[in-house]
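Hi U.,

Before I forget, here's the chain from the pilot set. I'm dumping it here mostly so it's searchable later in email.
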Amino acid sequence: MGTYKKLTLLHSNDMHGDFLAEKIDENLSGGVSLLSGYVNKVRNEEENVLYCIAGDMFRGSVIDSEFKGVSTIEIMNAIAPDVVTLGNHETDYGIAHLLFLEKCAKFPIINANLYIKSNMVRLFRPHVVLEVDGMKILFIGIITENVMRQAKNEGILGTFLDIHEAAEEVGKICNAYNALDIDLTVLLTHIGFEEDKQLAEQLDPAWGVDLIIGGHSHTFIEEPYRVNDILIVQAGIGTDQIGRFDLLIDTDNNCIHDCHWRYIPICPENCPNDEAIEKILHSYKSLTDKKYMRMITRLRRILTHPDRYRETELGDLFADILKDSLALDVMLLISGSIRREKLGPLVQYADLVDCFPYDEDIRMLTVSGKQLKSMMAYVFRDEVWQGAHSGFFQISRDLRITYDISKGKMDLSYQGEALSDETMLRIGLQKYQYNSFEKYFNFPVQEIEEQYPSKVVATSARSILEEYLSRHQNIDQTLDGRITLIRE
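Structure:
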């Protein structure tokens, strides 16, 4: 017989500044005031409670963007998570600013595999051991190269950063702490659900990893996924729900004896409102309202962006506005830059910022039809339709793509005719996608730059959208079949 102790482990990920509760079917859902109320309630009801966040606290709301994450840190300090790991959007305001924000945080921010190249020193605290009721819980933070492109795009500072192979880093830390009688080992990752599975396969069972709590892919699951006897979970996106583990830990054998996991909806029925958080929130909101609550336009109806991996009304509209305003032949707009599922009919500036928060340069490249076909073949590759978290693009009018998923066959046309290999087109890309060109299109951008040097044609994509929308009323946008997916 072992000695058993209870532990309640709460977790969130990809909150993206989702601070305010929303009305859904006349009921309130989400928001940090209700989320904090639930965390406090569990802390009062249960003896041993830990709350962790698996990356991307920042970016995606007016309040976060206006105060460059300082507001988020103050709100998170009031909620008091026990441990947080880095997500890719934690670097959006720059590595130097992130290090400043870390100093403002009253909770540990961990990452084990982000190094300064020159002297091989980790940039952040790699792990933390939390003691609860005599139990020692080891948390290790992991992010991987494919979600750290922003750091590498920072110029001089970014060039000093290196990402070490994740499983190796886990092994180093677990080996170093085995002698401390660790009762539970948790990886806090921000690499995506499929990558979590791959990581779990690589881990040596002797290292004793019990749980992977992940983020980045915004995955909703029905029950924990088990790989290599490691349970993998994720809590979707935002603050509409929180993940909850109720664990029974065998402290003699340092393992999980029993566990139950579920989603908890963040709503008034489950969660008392935290008035202290509400006060902080509204102090920031009152400041942003003056700047952001001005009317831009009225759309004819609500326009939608329900899925990143297909043509959408907002994707068509935004891609066309950027194409026309910048005299491009084709605009390739990354689907993930549109962060709301719907917009309108009334559009205030705050709505536009919430919907399109990542304001960047637009760069024009001149590509051949052959090169564009190669680019799109990689965007539409098989693994995208098998669940990989990948870059997908909304495209402007004149370009038409038909892709047969079952056959892996693609047809491209431009202005109603099959696209020839020799046709030269001026395409627009956002700064991030240009800087990470090979990741998104599988060949180096130098191949294009050597023929026709690119140039920045706009320093603010959002200002172009704002200008167009403010000059046009009652806009409508229907899907016109510019991306056609054949699934059978």
